[in-house]
Write a structure and sequence with these properties.
342 residues, mainly alpha, two-stranded antiparallel ribbon, 61% helix, 5% strand, globular
Length: 342
Amino acid sequence: MAKRILKYIGLILLIYVFLCLITPFNKTLRNRSIKNQINYLSSILDKGYDDKLQGRFPEGKLFSNCLLALSIIEFCDKNGIVDKKYATIIDNCIRRIQSQNAKNVFNAELQPKYGAFYQGWSNLVYSTYTKSELINFSKYSLDVVEKLENFETTIENIQTDSLRIIETYAGSNWPADNMIGVSSLQNDSLKSTWINLLLNTSEHNSNLIHHSGSQKSIIRGSSTSMITYCLKKSGYERVEDYNKAFEEIFIDTYWGIQLVQENEDGSNNMDVDSGPVLFGYGASATIMNIKTQASLKKPNAKITWAAIHLISLPINIFEKKYLILKKEPMLDFFMLWSSTEL
């Protein structure tokens, strides 16, 4: 009897592992995964979980709502889904993005108001939303268009007057935050000018864009993976060369799985941007790189997503899906956003 039970347990585990690994390669399983993650993450944000994330991360409330909204728009657009319920979830995200609680951490005196991170991410949501048919169901459609146009005008005025890297907080800037803003622009000429400014400001010998404005010769895996994705999204012509330089410095591949070092020297130094760093490989850098490589149509993206998916112990039942036993929802948001690109 005991042997039979163990046999059944072993069979169940094998099926579980198989489903975890095959999910990114099978459209039906992948779409089920995405839909159920959206259901779970939207439900916890509706209950105020983004305020808890704000207590753990400097921009947790804004970031979580932007990632969920972007994931829904990308998923629906790629699958031809036009459903009012998804527009309602996006609208709820926008309401929270525009809330004072989301803005409190940022400086209203900066130009543009609230700085590069707030404006970049919120306007990336707005620009992506306005291009989607889901906007037709939005109660914020006019407001979204107005805010997008205002951002574009403000950036054009700022960069025409004095071309510069925009601050995230007073006295400090991060190029990756600027690149998010670049990605949200409609003006191709301004995009190109802003990208060239970032490239030319960097003092690293690889020509990769630096991590922090105060350290122009230091590059990091987490920001480089984000910047590379933004360059692709912004139509940068030399993105393949840029990605190759990124890969040579930061990416190691084992059995098709890409792990990304956070620091150029392979150290375990970490902070809120890097997330956990183990054996030199950064969690944020590795997971963001999935979306980056998927946007470039690289096959390793699905393999890497499958591996992280398995070790995240996904639970996908009752039309809701969560990872790591609900212990680290920011992982859920990033895995969801990366999966819409696979």
